[in-house]
């Protein structure tokens, strides 16, 4: 399954940070994170950047919907936030 490939492509540190986010977040809040959710989300983005991991945003979006139970709209917004966060970090380092 392609969703399993997503988790296999992540470093152990990125998987841990993603699991921390997953444990904290309340999907019914959609993208209205509380401060601990948001910090866990940023930690995940930073780890992906440090690992220089290639993320398939479509698969990531499916994972958010199927595994965490975000709505399609919220998953799309989070996928866009991930893309924007990684772009910002890459731009900062260039």
Care to describe what's here?
The chain is an all-alpha fold and 94 residues long. The protein has one domain (10-22, 35-93). Helix content is 77%, strand content 0%. It is built from five helices and no strands. Helix 2 runs antiparallel to helix 3 and helix 4 packs across helix 5.
- Helix tally equals 5
Distance between the termini: 35 Å
Outline the low-pLDDT stretches: none
Gyration radius, rounded: 12 Å
N-to-C series of helices and strands: HHHHH
Integer average pLDDT: 89
Give the overall shape, derived from the CA principal axes: globular
Helix content: over 70%
Number of domains: 1
Secondary-structure-based class equals mainly alpha
- Portion in beta strands: under 5%
Task: Count every beta strand, where a strand is a DSSP E run of 2 or more residues.
Answer: 0
- Main sheet properties: none
Subunit organisation of the chains? single chain
How are the secondary structure elements laid out?
Blueprint: H1 2-9, H2 12-24, H3 35-51, H4 57-68, H5 72-93
Task: Offer a few descriptive terms.
single chain; 94 residues; 0% strand; mainly alpha
Please summarize what this structure is.
With 94 residues, this protein is mainly alpha-helical.
């Amino acid at each position: 399954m392609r969703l399993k490939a997503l988790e296999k492509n992540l470093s152990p540190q990125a998987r841990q940070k993603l699991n921390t986010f997953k444990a904290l977040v309340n999907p019914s809040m959609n993208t209205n994170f509380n401060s601990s959710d948001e910090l866990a989300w940023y930690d995940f983005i930073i780890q992906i950047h440090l690992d220089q991991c290639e993320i398939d945003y479509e698969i990531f979006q499916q994972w958010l919907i199927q595994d965490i139970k975000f709505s399609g709209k919220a998953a799309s917004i989070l996928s866009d936030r991930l893309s924007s966060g990684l772009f910002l970090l890459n731009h900062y380092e260039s």
